[in-house]
Structures are given as structure tokens and as C-alpha cells.
Design a protein that fits this description.
4-stranded parallel beta sheet, 455 residues, two-stranded antiparallel sheet, ABC transporter involved in vitamin B12 uptake, BtuC, single chain, alpha/beta
Length: 455
């Protein structure tokens, strides 16, 4: 019995935290594979360069900071500006794209600096192109010091990983609840396209690029209602007419895709205002985190409370574990199933709204094959396809595992087709692990039963 308890504890630890360990190992692997010479940027790069300047004898000349338009370059330039100003250096600053920089550096020929500070490998060639001008050519070109650091662990790349999985991760919340009830929802990819098309179409009808904020909210509500009703219809077919979830949602996948093409006439709809991209591309200034990622984490918190701390969550697990026992216990199975499929549709609609914001358009081609990626995230996160078992946080980890694998393979220049092979093998491994875990648990339960004790 003690051996059984130890095995059960080990199995539970592997089930709950195994994919988190896999995620950490993947991060370590891609960090090691992407170590390169990186230019220090932002405030840290400015501090390192200022320290180098302060250690050199001052020539009393003028320093010109040359910065591009990216956020790290702007942060570097502003930080160095403050440091030089506080230290009493004579300096100037120019910024812009390469053409603007060339024009502004040319204006400096009348009062040439003794040193240029080029913030990146992009701005340095612009400065070097002025070497032939006598008054400028003799100036030093200073750049932030370089250091060996993994490209994977750069802050911009990590934010990019989180931002890229937001749509899949949001949809995966609903899919987790569906799969825990031993169902499946194949319509979510098409609902992403339908949601994006509906919000763009309604916003266009209400004024297009000039639509008010209230109009955008109404368009988003319309998209959510359409997708929620589609999910509810799938749930109705499954509960009232006993149609298998695979067939019911496969049919709705085709219906939703067809309606998206009919509404958009097969073309993207671009009638969305500029401020709408705040949801998909905006960044929260205090945390320096994409707004879409904050929305994703908020919904995961709500879903965790629902599944782990509410009666409805226990009902969802009960229905997936043993539907007949749940019915005999007084649980209204039809209502539970109707809820999870409606929630899946609503969350797919929210995913479509986020995607429309990221791309500033709605098109019937959005969400293609997303149902496969969503199911992969749920399965890799430890949710059993047999139902009754799974964790919302596990699904978030599974989404990050898939995102890290894709991002790491992109950074290591692995071809797209090879990435599909790797992703397929990851899904297969996750399902195989689930099956082996179920068989092992069943075997241990049998061996620890009354018959084994009597022997």
C-alpha cells in the first residue's frame, strides 16, 4: 500500500508539474542554442556606454547621439541624454529612420561632433556613410558594448512569445472545459474568422475608420453573441439530439467558415479605426506587457476560480469523469454541456476580436487550423482526452510550450515543414503519455485491491 501511495504521489507530481519542467528545459535548450553577441540596448546599454565614456579622458568636444525609431533605441537615447546632461557633457541628439538620420547628420557638418554614439548596428552604417566628409569623417563612432546573451531570453523576444500565443491560449480555456467533459470542439478556428469578420463588418457599417468607441464595443458584442450562439447551437445538438461532439462541431466549423466568407464576400475587411489596435498591439506602460497578454492572464484567473473553486467546476469534472454517476447524483448534465460549448464559442469569439485587433482587419481566412493548435495546447497541458481530468493552468503551460517550441525553432532557422513534424510529434508524445499514465494507474489500482490483499 505504501508503494502504491508513493507511485500515486509521483504520478500526480508528474501530471501536475511535468509539463512545467518540460517548459523550463525547453527554455534552457533554446537559450543555449541562441547565444550570440548582442548589443546592449535600453537603459542598461546606456549605463555601460556612459561608464566607458567617464573612464576616458575628456576631449571637451561635442557628442552626437544617433538613434533609430525602435523602443529600445529611444530608451537608450533618452537614458544616455539624462546621464550626459547630469555630467555636464556637450552633446546633441538626432533620431529617425535611416533617410531622416542622413539628412540630420548632414546638417551637423557645420558644427561637427568629436564623437558619434550609434545605438545599434542599423544606425552605425548610417554614420559610417559620412566618413568621406572631412569635417565629420574624423569623429569617433561609439556603440554600446556587446555581450554574449541568448537571443531567446531578450525581453522583446519573450514578450513576443507571450503575445503570439494569446489567441490560442484564450480559445484553449473553453476547449479545456469541453475536453474535460469528454467532448471536442472543432469549430473554434472558424469561429475566430467569423468573429473577426463580424466585428470588422459591423464597425464598417457604423462608420468604418471614424466609428466611435461605443460603436466598436457594439461590434465586439455582436461578434461575441454570434460566436456564443454558434457554440450554444453545437451544445444543443449534442445534448438534445445525441449527435457526437465531433460531428456536431465539425458541421458548425463548416457553417461558420461559410458564413464568414458570405459576409466578407471572400475578401478582408479593413474598416477598423486605428485606436482599435490598442487591444492587440498596445502595451501597458507600468508592466511593459502587451495588453493582449494581460487580458489572457485575466481570463485564465477567472477560469481557474471557476474550475477549482466553484460548484460548476466540480460539475464539469464530474460529467467528464462519469456522466451516468453525475446524472444519478442529481447533476443536470445537459445544462453543464450546454454551458461549456457556449463558453467555448464565446472564448473563440474573443480570440477572433484579439486577432482582428492585432491585424487591424477581419478576413475569412483567419484561424485556419487553429483548432489543431488549441487542442494541442490542451493535450500537452495534461488534460485527458478521456475526460474528467485536466487543469486550466496546465493548459496555459501547454500553450507556452507550443509557443516556445515554435519561437525557438524560428530562432534556430528550422524550416516551417520541419516545425510541423516536431509539433506533431509533441502532440503524439503528450497523448501517449496520457494513455500510459491511465493504464499505469488502472493497473496499480487493480493490484492494490482487496483480492491482492487476501493473497
Amino acid at each position: 500500500m505504501k508503494s502504491f501511495r508513493r507511485d500515486t504521489l509521483l504520478t500526480r507530481l508528474l501530471s501536475d508539474y511535468g509539463m512545467l519542467l518540460v517548459l523550463v528545459l525547453l527554455c534552457v535548450l533554446f537559450s543555449l542554442l541562441t547565444i550570440t553577441e548582442q548589443t546592449s540596448t535600453g537603459s542598461p546599454g546606456a549605463r555601460l556606454l556612459f561608464d566607458r565614456l567617464s573612464k576616458q579622458p575628456s576631449s571637451g568636444g561635442r557628442i552626437l547621439i544617433v538613434a533609430g525609431l525602435s523602443e529600445p533605441e529611444k530608451e537608450f537615447a533618452s537614458s544616455l541624454h539624462r546621464m550626459l546632461e547630469a555630467a555636464g557633457y556637450r552633446f546633441g541628439e538626432v533620431s529617425g529612420d535611416p533617410m531622416q538620420l542622413r539628412a540630420r547628420i548632414a546638417e551637423e557638418a557645420g558644427r561637427p561632433p568629436t564623437a558619434f554614439v550609434a545605438t545599434t548596428d542599423v544606425t552605425r552604417p548610417v554614420v559610417e556613410s559620412f566618413r568621406d566628409i572631412p569635417t565629420i569623417g574624423g569623429a569617433k563612432i561609439l556603440t554600446p558594448p556587446r555581450r554574449s546573451w541568448p537571443t531567446f531570453l531578450l525581453a522583446d523576444n519573450l514578450r513576443n512569445v507571450a503575445n503570439q500565443i494569446t489567441v490560442i491560449a484564450i480559445i484553449a480555456i473553453g476547449m479545456t472545459m469541453v475536453i474535460i467533459t469528454a467532448g471536442i470542439d472543432l469549430s473554434v478556428g472558424s469561429l475566430v474568422a467569423l468573429s473577426a469578420v463580424v466585428i470588422a463588418w459591423v464597425a464598417g457599417a457604423l462608420g468604418g475608420a471614424d466609428v466611435s468607441t461605443l460603436g466598436i464595443l457594439f461590434a465586439a458584442l455582436a461578434a461575441l453573441v454570434v460566436c456564443g450562439l454558434t457554440g450554444a447551437f453545437s451544445g444543443l445538438m449534442i445534448t438534445a439530439f445525441k449527435i457526437p461532439p465531433f460531428i456536431a462541431t465539425l458541421a458548425m466549423m463548416q457553417v461558420a467558415a461559410g458564413v464568414a466568407y458570405i459576409i466578407s464576400k471572400g475578401k478582408p475587411i479593413y474598416q477598423l479605426p486605428d485606436r482599435f489596435v490598442w487591444l492587440g498591439r498596445g502595451t501597458e506602460p507600468l508592466l511593459n506587457m502587451p495588453i493582449a497578454v494581460i487580458v489572457m492572464l485575466l481570463f485564465y484567473l477567472i477560469a481557474w476560480v471557476l474550475m477549482e473553486r466553484s460548484v460548476l467546476g466540480r460539475y464539469i469534472y464530474a460529467v467528464g469523469g462519469n456522466a451516468e454517476a453525475a446524472r444519478l447524483a442529481g447533476i443536470r448534465i445537459r445544462r453543464v454541456l450546454l454551458f461549456v460549448y457556449t463558453a467555448s464559442g464565446l472564448l473563440a469569439g474573443l480570440g477572433g476580436i484579439v486577432m482582428a485587433s492585432q491585424l487591424k482587419s477581419g478576413a475569412p481566412t483567419y484561424g485556419l487550423s487553429y483548432e489543431l493548435y488549441v487542442i494541442a495546447a490542451v493535450v500537452v497541458g495534461g488534460t485527458s482526452l478521456s475526460g474528467g481530468e485536466g487543469k486550466i493552468i496546465g493548459t496555459l503551460i501547454g500553450a507556452f510550450v507550443i509557443g516556445v517550441i515554435q519561437n525557438g525553432m524560428n530562432l534556430t532557422n528550422i524550416e516551417t515543414y520541419t516545425q510541423k513534424v516536431v509539433l506533431g510529434l509533441v502532440i503524439l508524445a503528450a497523448v501517449l503519455f496520457d494513455r500510459l499514465k491511465q493504464k499505469g494507474l488502472t493497473r496499480r489500482l487493480r493490484s492494490s485491491g482487496p483480492d491482492s490483499d487476501s493473497r
